[in-house]
Specification:
Layout lengths: L14 E5 L2 H4 L11 H6 L17 H14 L4 E5 L2 H4 L9 H16 L3 E7 L5 H4 L9 H16 L5 E5 L2 H9 L11 H24 L6 E11 L4 H24 L4 H7 L11 H4 L5 E14 L7 E4 L15 H15 L4 E5 L16 H19 L4 E7 L18 E3 L6 E3 L1 H10 L1 H4 L1
Parallel strand pairs: 1-2, 1-9, 2-3, 3-4, 5-6, 6-8, 8-9
Antiparallel strand pairs: 6-7, 10-11
Helix pairs in contact: 3-5, 7-9, 8-9, 13-14
Bound molecules: 5-hydroxymethyl-3,4-dihydroxypiperidine.
5-hydroxymethyl-3,4-dihydroxypiperidine binds next to loops.
């Protein structure tokens, strides 16, 4: 089954890539990595399906060369990976772990040797436990510890990075982890949420400052987005969806580009922001070179009783992925257009994550995933539509290279282009991988 597009449909400079993150694939019990708050969260009954953790994950730590060959053979231009803070600095501060630095050094060289552009994210959620002990993202010193980590890892590999973003999906670090309690550290606390959300942006700023200090360029920010669909035509549902939009989609961009937070978010978060928060915007609004959008789904939002934000998600009518997420490709066009129009106004936009999970099974030596091919084709068509309308979209990354640790859902949800057997760790490219090889092959498009 073909994807229905080729490279020739996109501008010559358009970049295709695939993405992973450290804790989800590397195996954190190897190479001197320190304990993370995800190890603590997973060890607590009820937090993670089957209490699974990232001890072994895909064992990418030992299978890096095989995985980099898979990326090269996919015919993509770029690989988006993340650097584990706890692998580089097991205590979160102080002495680095030489094995950890060597690992990312080999990764950078391995990518370049295969003609791939290294696109790094500094933090994709594995906070070192010693920093979690000190309050983690609630602690006002966190942004300065993060700058130290940034300086340490980028002093070693920054010279070879094509692009870097400090923090993956600030909403997940702040809201999902401190308000909803679905991710580590599993808090359900409004005051902690407000502080974490602000400190995430402040840490973004200290990291950008540290990397500019090292002379690095092509630095961005990666935010995630969900289309806020009112569950019905009522004024109450419209208002609830607007509150959802403010805290989910607008909060971080507004901080980064407008130096303030949306009024609808301030209604609940404002009283709990840390002292002197307004003074941090000079750091937070430093110029960026690009913005990344992670997009998967829409949510149907209804009003709910109870305190702010007084909303709830309800099930919708569209076809769903195995995450239970509705498939709504038009939402990607909506956000590319909105971010360009309301915030970035001409900066390159990159779709830094898009993809779907499905219950993929290895039958013989093949994994048929036509639903993933259709999902990718429909979303890539929306990227093309935005480009044709003048939105400066410069790249598109598929989540994920391979099946991996899907956080609180353990190893059950498969997002990969490559199937991983978690008993043997054997990698098998799925039909979607082969479809991309054909669509992205330069010779085929000449
Ligand atoms: O697996 C995650 C990833 O870590 C961040 N973005 C969404 C993906 C799918 O849930």
């Amino acid at each position: 089954m073909p994807l229905g597009f080729t490279r020739a449909d996109f501008p010559e400079s358009f970049l295709f890539g695939t993405a992973t993150s450290s804790y989800q694939i590397e195996g954190h019990s190897f190479g001197g990595a320190g304990r993370t708050h995800w190890d603590d969260f997973a060890a607590t009954p009820g937090n993670v399906v089957r209490a699974e953790n990232g001890d072994v994950a895909c064992d990418h730590y030992h299978r890096m060369d095989e995985d980099l060959d898979l990326i090269r053979d996919l015919n993509v231009d770029c690989y988006r990976f993340s650097t584990s803070w706890a692998r580089v600095m097991p205590e979160g501060r102080g002495a680095p772990n030489p094995e950890g630095l060597d690992f990312y050094d080999r990764l950078a060289d391995g990518l370049l040797a295969r003609g791939l552009k290294p696109c790094a994210t500094l933090y994709h959620w594995e906070l070192p436990s010693p920093l979690a002990d000190l309050g983690g993202w609630r602690n006002p010193d966190l942004p300065y510890w993060f700058a130290e980590f940034t300086h340490t890892i980028m002093s070693r590999i920054g010279d070879r990075m094509y692009s870097v973003a400090p923090i993956n999906e600030p909403w997940c670090v702040g809201w999902l982890s401190h308000f909803l309690g679905h991710h580590a550290p599993g808090l359900r606390d409004l005051r902690a949420t407000a502080r974490a959300m602000h400190h995430v942006l402040k840490a973004h700023g200290t990291a950008i400052e540290a990397m500019r200090g090292l002379g690095m360029t092509n630095l961005g920010a990666v935010c995630n987005f969900e289309y806020p669909n009112p569950a019905d035509g009522s004024a109450e549902a419209q208002a609830a969806a607007a509150r959802y939009d403010a805290t989910y989609n607008q909060f971080f961009l507004s901080g980064l580009f407008h130096g303030r937070y949306p009024d609808l978010a301030m209604e609940g978060l404002g009283p709990h922001l840390p002292e002197g928060w307004e003074d941090d915007f000079a750091l937070i609004t430093q110029p960026l070179d690009w913005v990344g959008l992670n997009y998967y789904t829409r949510k149907n939002i209804a009003a709910d009783d109870g305190p702010w934000p007084a909303l709830k998600e309800v099930s919708g009518p569209l076809p769903k992925t195995s995450m239970g997420w509705e498939i709504f490709p038009q939402g990607l066009h909506h956000f590319l257009t909105m971010v360009h129009r309301d915030y970035t106004k001409g900066l390159p936009l990159i779709v830094t994550e898009n993809g779907m999970s499905s219950a993929d099974a290895l039958i013989g030596d093949r994994v048929e995933d036509p639903q993933r091919i259709a999902y990718l084709a429909d979303h890539i068509a929306q990227v093309k539509r935005a480009i044709d309308e003048g939105v400066p979209v410069a790249g598109y990354f598929i989540w994920s290279l391979m099946d991996n640790y899907e956080w609180a859902l353990g190893y059950e949800k498969r997002f990969g282009l490559v199937h991983v057997d978690f008993d043997t760790l054997t990698r098998t490219p799925k039909a979607s991988y082969h479809a991309l090889v054909d669509a992205l092959g330069r010779a085929a498009n000449d």
